[in-house]
């Protein structure tokens, strides 16, 4: 009987701990950590102090307490073209399937990149790179399956290249096997409380993709867009924050520990994400379960780390779990970092109406009518956002 009661009360406690708030009136009062005040309480007034003092400080805080430290050491990265079709999509595109091999201390791992570039233009093309956290069929290089999640034909017809790699080859998205790929090269990360886990490994992979793209003559390496949906959207932000070679970042429905503010405690919270996906973030992040106010950073700071490069974030009206308002407010509170570069944001004081996209600004946003997904509507806005900035 005692065991039964213990189980019952434990279940009630867990249920209460993980209950989620969808009522704006129940969002607690919160104060965001100051973006433009250093840890030594010094005001940040120009790009020099941002780039040499505050920005490195924030990267260290996110590394130590949220995403884990990203290793910089490896012996080499090598690329091999495993398949090439210069007349894919009925001659509209060049296809390359690239094996990317990372070597360290007599070990290696391999993951794969699918890349289409348009043949209609002679000059190198801007390329969108998707961090694919869904089934491989969505990014089918043979184009037997054509998914709106990765609308390759539409992108080629619009004059853009499109690429993708799959997260499972860098860190399987399972708590019992996430360490079976890239982290085999970095076992010390597993022992460290600030060691990277799956999302850090996926971001590491994005940078190795960038290492390849700078070598491909059909790619404009100064116009590479990193794109992610959901957990991939969290990864895209972290990858772009660290690797300034990504010229534009798109984070689609990324929610908690993505583009949404943690301190709002709306929708998914830190305790829930750490319990459900303990393999995503570093061990130190668990210190902030049900304790968001103690976190030394919040997600407006992650977005600010990408400044002055453009960032586009999205939500969906039926995806309150990802906190649409909190995502918009994170973008809004990142504006001061962009202002240091004289980048004027056109974000209004309040979120735009559903289906209305804010495109012609360094910080873009829309809240699509629908569910947690990445759709053709989203990609159309991504194209317009990129086209504006790449022509500017």
From TrEMBL:
SUPFAM superfamilies: alpha/beta-Hydrolases (SSF53474)
GO molecular function: carboxylic ester hydrolase activity
Signal peptide: none
Pfam families: GCE_fung (PF22244)
Keyword annotations: Hydrolase, Serine esterase, Signal
Domain 4-O-methyl-glucuronoyl methylesterase-like, first and last residues per copy: 100-338
Record-linked InterPro entries: AB_hydrolase_fold (IPR029058), GCE-like_dom (IPR054579)
Protein name, UniProt field: Alpha/beta hydrolase
Upper classification of the organism: Bacteria, Pseudomonadati, Bacteroidota, Chitinophagia, Chitinophagales
